[in-house]
Amino acid sequence: MRVLVTGGAGYIGSVATAMLLERGFDVTVLDDCSTGHRDAVAGAAKFVEGSVLSTDSVALALTGCSAVFHFAAKSLVGESVEKPDLYFDVNVNGTRNLLDQMSKAKISKLVFSSTAATYGEPEVIPITEEANTKPTSPYGTTKLAVDKMITEEAKSGLAAISLRYFNVAGAYKSKAGWLAERHNPETHLIPNLLRSTRDKPIKIFGNDWPTKDGTCIRDYIHVVDLIDAHILALENLASGQHKIINLGSGGGYSVTEVVSAASKVLGRDIPTEIASRRSGDPAVLIADISLAAQCLNWAPKRGIENMVRDTWESQNASTSK
Ligand code: UDP
Asked: Which of 16, 19, 52 minimizes the C-alpha distance to 34?
């Protein structure tokens, strides 16, 4: 079976591409390399350089495919506040174009990269898929709009699963080497705290949150566990159904706990400094992952230390190149 991976040159998409190939699938990648990296795409994948907004590129990329993993999107909360039009265009119109081209090509299997940002500030922890959806950023709003679009599309036969990610971290050692986060600028906690030095300590965004140690709590999931769930989702798609499923670890770590875990893995202190709160950050985000267990027979296997260690090894491998 050939799978189209949109956004396959990005962090999560490149891991999906490598893992699909290693499990015997054929893969085509569609990416405009606006934020992704051509060299992250496994050599055995077919590569189409183009945008999800381009009818011709999407139609070409879909040739010979039977299913789609749709990762291509703009995905920074802060940027989405500054450039909402860009987010609506790429995320919503891009997916509309993809769905239209899939329908023309009679491809009816879709696994969509959705997000916990669709829920907004949670009223109840852990967050189930039944929770209210009140996104607090254009990023979350566009992903929610796509989830709703897919629900409508399923009424005419599409088989779809939206996976709502919590905090994805870690790296994957593919046959060709490490695949890891290479964002520019990098805003995520784990890659940044590993680069912390005495001269440039990692900033902790607020220690006055209503949590046990005053720092924000997030639910971190290893990228390999995340892609395992995508492959299980592909195998569990049902015609005319759209399921929405959370993916996290089902437990939370405060920023201070992540720093401690990193310090343990590295065997040294991580220099930190307290900074003001980052706008748009909720205090606590933890997923209820019972639906993923029930529908996909999936459970995460890799913990926070594993995420830190793999990120660390991938950063060392790339600096020693
Ligand atoms: N965070 C932090 N310092 C940083 C980056 C992140 O204190 O340099 C905090 C952030 O406020 C949040 C958590 O770490 O509570 C995870 O942030 P990240 O940007 O990794 O993911 P997000 O939750 O925004 O998707």
From this structure: 52
Pair of tokens at residue 5: 């991976």
Q: In whole angstroms, what is the distance from residue 27 CA to residue 64 CA?
A: 10
Mutation choice for ligand 1 from 219, 278, 285, CB with most ligand atoms inside 8 A: 278
Q: In this predicted model, what pLDDT tens digit does every residue of 304-317 receive, in sequence order?
A: 999 999 999 999 98
Residues 159, 210, single domain; the answer is no
- 102 Cβ closer than 6 Å to some ligand 1 atom: no
Residues in the chain, how many? 321
pTM: 0.97
Are residues 158 and 120 located together in one domain of the fold?
A: yes
Residues 111 and 207 in one domain: no
How far is the centre of ligand 1, averaged over its atoms, from the C-alpha of 202 (Å)? 11
Same domain, 123 and 186: no
189 ligand 1 Cβ < 6 A: yes
**Between β-strands 67-70 and 159-165, what pairing exists: parallel, antiparallel or unpaired?**
unpaired
Distance (Å, whole) CA 223 – CA 167? 9
Q: Is the pLDDT of residue 318 over 80?
A: no
Please give the distance, rounded to the nearest whole angstrom, from the Cα atom of residue 188 to the centre of ligand 1.
6
Taking 90 as the threshold, does the pLDDT of residue 182 lie above it? Answer: no
Would you please indicate which residues are annotated as catalytic (active-site) residues? 139
Rounded to whole angstroms, how far apart are CA atoms 107 and 105? 6
- The identity of residue 74, as a single letter, is K
Query: Is the Cβ–Cβ distance between 172 and 15 less than 8 Å?
Result: yes
The per-residue pLDDT for range 122-177, each reduced to its tens digit, is 999 999 999 999 999 999 999 999 999 999 999 999 999 999 999 999 999 999 99
Distance of CA 154 to the CA centre of its chain: 22
